[in-house]
Design goal:
single chain, mainly alpha, Arc Repressor Mutant, subunit A, 2 domains, two-stranded antiparallel sheet, 6% strand, elongated
Amino acid sequence: MSNEEMSEDELAKELKGRTLRVYWYMLRHPEPLTAREIQRGADLSSPSLSMHHLEKLREMGLVEKDMHGQYTIKRDVRVGVLRLFVGRGRMMVPRFLFYATFYTSVTAALTTMLIRFFEWYSLILLALLISLCGVLWYEAFRIWREQPFPERNE
């Protein structure tokens, strides 16, 4: 089987460590990048180490190199921890963030209504919604901390 046809399970086994860090950096910066730019951005010790991981990604069929020596994402795969994120470029966020935001908004809106039409079950509903929001925000922040390479302030 050629590297172009690697299954997601095989990619999940190969895409880890610094190689995952390089791939993550490229997903966050979808414009064509040189090995030196990736080395600096992914905080690798040398351009040759960057080249090693870029060639590994190229052999997996995930990136491609143009005639100017710049690399771009060829195939966007979401395996392992990458499955927990949505978006492209700088807008990659944990998918739980959308749920947390939605349910927090619903809870805030419902709280204003429950104050006006207060019944005993209103407190139970409000407690359930607040606990749901707490769990969703916790999961969103936990996943954010698991990202392969946290962005530095650029």
